[in-house]
Amino acid sequence: MYRIVSIPGDGIGPEVVAGALEVLGTVAKTHGLEYSVEEHPFGGASYDLHGEMLTEDTLEACRNCDAVLLGAVGGPKWENLPHEKKPEAALLRIRKELGLFANLRPAKVYDALVDASSLKDEVVRGTDFLVFRELTGGIYFGQPRGYDENRGWNTMVYERYEVERIARLAFEAARKRTGRVMSIDKANVLEVSQFWRNVVHEVHKEYQDVELSDMYVDNAAMQIVRNPKQFDVIVTGNLFGDILSDIAGMITGSLGMLPSASIGTKHALYEPIHGSAPDIAGRNIANPIATIASLAMMFEHSFRRTDIASEIYEAIENALASGIRTADIAKPGEKSVSTTDMTNTIVRHLGA
Ligand code: NAD
Ligand code: IPM
Ligand code: MN
User: Fold this and answer.
1) Does the CB atom of residue 94 touch ligand 1 within 6 A?
2) 1-105+253-352 fold
3) What is the pLDDT of residue 133?
4) Between the CA of residue 78 and those of 44, 59, 182, 242, 282, what are the distances in Å?
5) What is the residue-wise DSSP string for 75-104?
6) Ligand 1, atom 12, residue with closest C-alpha
7) What is the model's pLDDT at position 283?
8) Which residue's CA is the closest to the ligand 2 atom numbered 7?
9) Does this model's pTM top 0.90?
10) Dihedral sign computed on CA atoms, order 85, 90, 92, 97
11) pLDDT at residue 352 above 70?
12) Which of 48, 98, 178, 193 is the most buried (most CB within 10 A)?
């Protein structure tokens, strides 16, 4: 029995989560899986109902399930709230409370979508790297933080154990891939980054079979666009990982393509890397693939069913190969389909 908690959130969150749940229902049927989905309000949607972005009830449900599926939070309606009351703060809190210190963001280019990228075919074709973004530390959580009329401040801090545990996961993953890790930092300027680099190299002593290199984050941003195929596993801090993974999104054609898994020692949460996309919300045109692929990651990491994960990825690949495109991945002037059409096409390919 898989017990899943769904927190659709705001904007396109509910639209793309509905797509993933459709796919879940389909694979459950074909594989005879028993599962439950409990939906809970989160973010602005929760605030409007209960006056709180993250209720104790939602948090408790996330603690007591096998895996959480999250859409996205945030939007103009709530952006003028005090900082600690914003939907984004609730997202950070849920990550922290569940101990989700590692955010895995795979950037893989589907052959059928090579022409959707703003980069050249030969640059993007075959791109396949995996970002390990540290998710519960760094400047997102460091104290002190705040602003007044004349000053704003945040603190970037990493503890040894925080760097060690994410580095270990990255090295372990590299062993199962092509055996290369790139650690990305800003050690030429920031002491916290020098510390990050030192600790990653210490952990590397236990993984001598893996090749470790370092790169400064500004260069990395450029290199991902210049030659994304040079990367295999990337390990980096919270803020740098956030920015670099949006760049990676564009390599694959759209932010609407990239899934993620947020993992800790006890809990796991799966979410697309994109946000609530208020500019297209409520119109049934969002790309559901990032969220459907996040469900595939759930099968891979939480349920240890790589067979089902592969089936979902294959159905996405085949749906795209059939030529169907949501607006974000369509060529200019090309006909595009709705969120539900894309979902239904993927569901049909699951049956095939
Ligand atoms: P965004 O990711 O929501 O959107 C950026 C652009 O990408 C928009 O033009 C949007 O239409 C497009 N896009 C994103 N996902 C798409 C999809 N699935 N299909 C088609 N197009 C898609 O980023 P933003 O506009 O900077 O942020 C909007 C809100 O979302 C903010 O409140 C932000 O804080 C929040 N946000 C939340 C999360 C999250 O919940 N994990 C992540 C990022 C941003
Ligand atoms: C993401 C988002 C979040 C982050 C925000 C909304 C808190 O951009 O999941 O990538 O910065 O982690
Ligand atoms: Mn982001």
Assistant:
1) no
2) Isopropylmalate Dehydrogenase (3.40.718)
3) 98
4) 7, 20, 37, 21, 17
5) -GGGTTS-GGGSHHHHHHHHHHHTT--EEE
6) 277
7) 98
8) 88
9) yes
10) positive
11) no
12) 193
Span 45-51, average pLDDT = 95
Ligand 3 centroid–CA 320 distance in Å is 25
Across-strand partners of 131? 105, 234
- Ranges of CATH 3.40.718.10 domains, the chain: 1-105+253-352, 118-245
pLDDT in tens, 334-351: 999 999 999 999 999 997
**Residue list, CB under 5 A from ion ligand 3:** 242
- Mutation to probe ligand 2, out of 70, 83, 242 (largest number of atoms < 8 A from CB): 242
User: To which H or E segment does residue 173 belong?
Assistant: helix 160-175
Q: Which helix (H) or strand (E) holds 9?
A: strand 2-9
Q: Is the pLDDT of residue 34 over 70?
A: yes
- For 116-137, the pLDDT digits (tens) are 888 999 999 999 999 999 999 9
CB 21 within 8 A of CB 37: yes
Fold of the CATH domain 118-245: Isopropylmalate Dehydrogenase (3.40.718)
The residues annotated with a catalytic role in the active site are 140, 186, 218, 242, 246
> Do 338 and 285 contact (CB within 8 A), yes or no?
yes
pLDDT digits 0-9 by tens, 253-269: 999 999 999 999 999 99
